[in-house]
From TrEMBL, chain A:
Signal peptide: none annotated. It comes from Lates calcarifer. The lineage of its organism: Eukaryota, Metazoa, Chordata, Craniata, Vertebrata. Belongs to the eukaryotic RPC34/RPC39 RNA polymerase subunit family. One of its GO terms (biological process) is transcription by RNA polymerase III. Component of the RNA polymerase III complex consisting of 17 subunits: a ten-subunit horseshoe-shaped catalytic core composed of POLR3A/RPC1, POLR3B/RPC2, POLR1C/RPAC1, POLR1D/RPAC2, POLR3K/RPC10, POLR2E/RPABC1, POLR2F/RPABC2, POLR2H/RPABC3, POLR2K/RPABC4 and POLR2L/RPABC5; a mobile stalk composed of two subunits POLR3H/RPC8 and CRCP/RPC9, protruding from the core and functioning primarily in transcription initiation; and additional subunits homologous to general transcription factors of the RNA polymerase II machinery, POLR3C/RPC3-POLR3F/RPC6-POLR3G/RPC7 heterotrimer required for transcription initiation and POLR3D/RPC4-POLR3E/RPC5 heterodimer involved in both transcription initiation and termination. GO terms for cellular component: cytoplasm; nucleoplasm; RNA polymerase III complex. This is DNA-directed RNA polymerase III subunit RPC6. It holds the Pfam family RNA_pol_Rpc34. DNA-dependent RNA polymerase catalyzes the transcription of DNA into RNA using the four ribonucleoside triphosphates as substrates. Specific peripheric component of RNA polymerase III which synthesizes small RNAs, such as 5S rRNA and tRNAs. Keywords: DNA-directed RNA polymerase, Nucleus, Transcription. It is found in: Nucleus. Its main location: nucleus.
TrEMBL record, chain B:
Belongs to the eukaryotic RPC3/POLR3C RNA polymerase subunit family. It comes from Lates calcarifer. Its main location: nucleus. This is DNA-directed RNA polymerase III subunit RPC3. Transmembrane segments: none annotated.
Length: 318, 538
């Protein structure tokens, strides 16, 4: 019965709970964004708060109303029938768990957290989770941070980067070979650029500037190389370049760039350049003592001493 | 005065001066300042020998004496310093530097001075001339004036300096309560005339020693020299100025670092700047005096024909470099530039630490180490993320570095009870304490190398003695004109495997020697860094 056209206020029998529920449902249909307690009260001024609460609870448990909260208070919204049918046959607890998981979005939620939020015992939770999984409503995703931990999220959601680890992880394994290959490729690119600049024999300022490469250039080069199955963003390339800085092979400067120049982020660009180490391997490491694993145990006259050191013997005969 | 330093000093003293001096020296190092009676009592060595050992130590500047604790009149106390004894390790480097800068003459002057400790100019010149004449062809000899001029050059550039005027220096009786003057710190002469060459009348040429019975001749000739000939410079003794050599080494290290990082021309510019400020900068200065670009341009060696604007570009590049070797101190005169000495030393020390970690633990651990040096404090998870190393391996490497004390753990509690689950654990690297630790490791390494060398020599003592005997026989036979068959007969007394053994021994000793020099380079860098960070005593 469409109440929108006929503005006739139907006298609701306030003592009949079913009537109250229907009225509330109609109000929800009228205001698809949701209705507050205030709206219901205005419509049914003689309704006692207790009866109103009972009706709302009934509708909620039947899964026909959604309870939301906004800045001014609670909102009740009509649940669309499709999702309502999904939950048919599930009981309250399952619906509660499902709601908690839905709220967790694409980061997923751990089973212990579900227990905290719903105050249900662990055995119940496990049963419900198994049930929901078999109904293909939720799925378990292994987190990359702790490999034994499983987070649950809705079936059709894409897990977030923090859970899967992003481009560097495939199936929860850190792809160290992939990172190594990228590392070497970036370094080769920067090194050849620096060499080309040095061989060009121009004035030193021009030489240095041409030996720099922006992070955008490196990103384009890596994409064109096609060694990566996954799409890499410029941020990913920057993390690789940072590891090269920590290897001492590359240095970075930041320059101000006009907004709109390709590759600039917030008016800045990062430039990278291959460099040489400033000293040769130091004298200490050219002796066996510098690399000796039992250095601290070595004393003259002891089991391990310079006189009977086998590392020294090998080194001397080399 | 750590245990490792004392051990190394003991070994060096034993090698260069003998066991008695070693005993006295190490005793003084361990116990601090002591007077003569205590030394005799505690080492159990006779008075005569102790006096002689102290004499040797004072002559070489390793020991100083001052009036006793209870004021003047109480017996003099003697104190040994380990720094001076550790310099013995660096003698080859000093001699080699003198050779590159001043030729053979300079090399032998420095060598003689290092062997004798303190010498007057005249005696030094005579000895050096004689030695040089020895190696020249028949009929030629070295003129004293050439040697004197080389000596004066060395003094002008401050490589040699006068000994501080302590009365009684150079006498054999070390127990006289001499008037101990300036709080004896013979390394920083702050008295005038320190670098003034005395006017000396010394004319003549080097005398060649006859090859036969040269031992006897030398001794007689030496006695004769000591007694006769005064040359107007009595009482003025000279010693090698180690600080100046160290400044030279430091400059060399900076120049080669710039050459590695940038290019040859930049390193030439830095070399010019350092040369210009050689004598105007104090040894402990943080950076050289500001030099204007105009001055640098004028002082560049003429072989480098770079136009002025290019020089300006090079200077700008040097200033912009993240290593900060050169800094800009002003705009007058086309730009005033300084070389940042302390920062350069810190960078070199840092590179040394990184190199040690890299060679010892691998390049991934080196990546973690550099990461921690840059970012100061990081959590376990952050280390894994930044270094892009799988969690298990990163954990393993961090714990290895932690157990070797190269990396430290800093706890930051969230709650007043330091509950482990509620505390932040941050990894960090402290450069200065780590450098000190590595320095001690270097001392231990050198001591190990020396001990191994002594052991190898001892093992093959019998063989060495045999070969020496055979050489002596050969030499005498040759001198008295024997036939070739006799010579070959004698040579065959050493069997082939013995020859091989001797050859292997020679190789081993050479390797150990050169290794000592290499470790000494590391010691120099780390010591300079640690000393540069020491706050100057006010």
């Amino acid at each position: 019965m469409k109440m929108a056209e006929v503005k006739v206020k139907k006298e609701t029998n306030l003592s009949d709970p079913a009537e109250v529920e229907n009225r509330i449902k109609e109000l929800c249909q009228q205001f698809p964004h949701g209705i507050t307690d205030q709206v219901i009260q205005n419509d049914l001024p003689h309704l006692e708060p207790q009866q109103r609460a009972m009706a709302i609870n009934k509708l909620l448990s039947l899964g026909q109303l959604d309870l939301l909260r906004n800045s001014s208070g609670l909102l009740y919204r009509l649940k669309d029938t499709q999702s309502a049918s999904k939950m048919k046959g599930s009981d309250n607890q399952e619906k509660l768990v499902y709601q908690i998981i839905e709220d967790a979005g694409n980061k997923g939620i751990w089973s212990r957290d579900i227990r905290f939020k719903s105050n249900l015992p662990l055995t119940e939770i496990n049963k419900i989770l198994k049930n929901l999984e078999s109904k293909k409503l939720i799925k378990a995703v292994k987190s990359v941070a702790a490999s034994k931990k499983k987070v649950y999220m809705l079936y059709n959601l894409q897990p977030d980067r923090s859970v899967t680890g992003g481009a560097w992880y495939s199936d929860q394994d850190f792809e160290s070979e992939f990172v190594e290959v990228l590392n070497q490729q970036c370094f080769k690119f920067l090194q050849s650029k620096a060499e080309a600049a040095r061989d060009s024999k121009q004035s030193p300022m021009v030489q240095r500037n041409s030996s720099f490469a922006t992070s955008h250039e490196v990103w384009k080069y890596i994409c064109e190389l096609g060694i990566s199955k996954v799409d890499l963003s410029m941020d990913d390339i920057e993390t690789i370049l940072n590891t090269l800085i920590y290897d001492g092979k590359v240095e970075m400067t930041v320059i101000a760039a006009k907004e709109g120049t390709v590759g600039s982020v917030d008016g800045q660009m990062k430039l990278y350049r291959g460099v040489n180490p400033i000293i040769q391997p130091t004298g200490l490491v050219k002796t066996p003592c510098g690399l000796c694993p039992v250095f601290d145990d070595c004393h003259e006259g002891g089991e391990i001493s310079p006189s009977n050191c086998i590392y020294m013997t090998e080194w001397l005969d080399f | 005065m750590t245990a490792q330093e004392v051990r190394l000093c003991g070994l060096l003293l034993r090698e260069h001066f003998g066991e008695v001096v070693e005993k006295v020296g190490t005793h003084l190092l361990r116990s601090g300042a002591q007077n003569l009676r205590t030394i005799i009592h505690e080492t159990g060595i006779s008075l005569d020998l102790v006096k002689k050992s102290l004499c040797v130590l004072v002559q070489h500047g390793a020991c100083v004496f001052s009036s006793g604790r209870k004021g003047p009149g109480s017996p003099t106390e003697y104190q040994a310093s380990s720094d001076r004894i550790l310099r013995i390790l660096r003698y080859p480097r000093y001699i080699y530097t003198a050779k590159t800068l001043y030729g053979d003459t300079g090399e032998i002057i420095i060598e003689e001075l290092l062997q004798r400790g303190h010498m007057t100019m005249s005696s030094n010149v005579k000895t050096v001339a004689d030695r040089l004449t020895q190696n020249m062809e028949e009929g030629r000899s070295m003129d004293y004036s050439e040697v004197s001029s080389a000596f004066s050059n060395l003094v002008e550039t401050h490589f040699l300096q006068r000994c501080p005027p302590l009365a009684g220096l150079g006498t054999t009786d070390a127990s006289t309560p001499a008037t101990p003057a300036t709080p004896a710190n013979p390394t920083t002469p702050s008295f005038p005339d320190c670098y003034k060459v005395p006017h000396m009348t010394l004319i003549g040429r080097g005398k060649r020693q006859l090859s036969s019975e040269d031992g006897e001749e030398q001794r007689n000739a030496k006695k004769a020299k000591l007694d006769s000939d005064t040359h107007g410079d009595e009482g003025i003794y000279w010693q090698v100025n180690f600080e100046r050599f160290h400044l030279h080494f430091r400059d060399q290290a900076i120049i080669s670092a710039v050459a590695n990082k940038l290019d040859q021309t930049s390193s030439e510019i830095v070399r010019t700047m350092l040369r210009m400020s050689e004598v105007t900068t104090s040894p402990t200065a943080t950076c050289t005096k500001p030099l204007s670009a105009n001055e640098i341009f004028r002082s560049l060696p003429s072989s480098y024909n770079i136009p002025r604007p290019i020089l300006d570009q090079y200077l700008t590049l040097l200033v912009d470099d993240p290593m900060e070797f050169v800094g800009k101190a002003g705009e007058s005169g086309g730009g005033m530039y300084v070389v940042n000495l302390h920062r350069a030393l810190a960078n070199l020390a840092r590179a040394t630490l990184e190199s040690v970690v890299q060679e010892r633990f691998g390049s991934r651990s080196a990546r973690i180490f550099r990461l921690l040096l840059r970012k100061r404090h990081l959590e376990q998870k952050q280390v894994e993320d930044f270094a892009m190393i799988p969690a298990k391996e990163a954990k393993d490497m961090l714990y290895t570095l932690l157990s070797q004390n190269l990396v430290q753990l800093q706890e930051i509690p969230k709650t007043p009870d330091y509950a482990p689950s509620r505390t932040f654990y941050l990894y960090t690297v402290n450069q200065l304490p780590t450098a000190r630790m590595l320095l001690q490791n270097c001392y231990k390494t050198v001591a190990n190398l020396i001990e191994r060398r002594l052991y190898e020599t001892k093992e093959s003592k019998r063989l060495l003695e045999k070969s020496q005997r055979i050489e002596a026989i050969l030499a005498s036979l040759q001198a008295s004109g024997a036939e070739p068959e006799q010579l070959t007969e004698v040579e065959e007394m050493i069997t082939a495997p013995e020859k091989q053994q001797l050859e292997a021994l020679r190789l081993h000793i050479n390797k150990l020697d050169s290794a000592e020099n290499q470790v000494d380079e590391t010691i120099f860098l780390l010591e300079s860094y640690v000393n540069s960070t020491a706050t100057p005593a006010s």
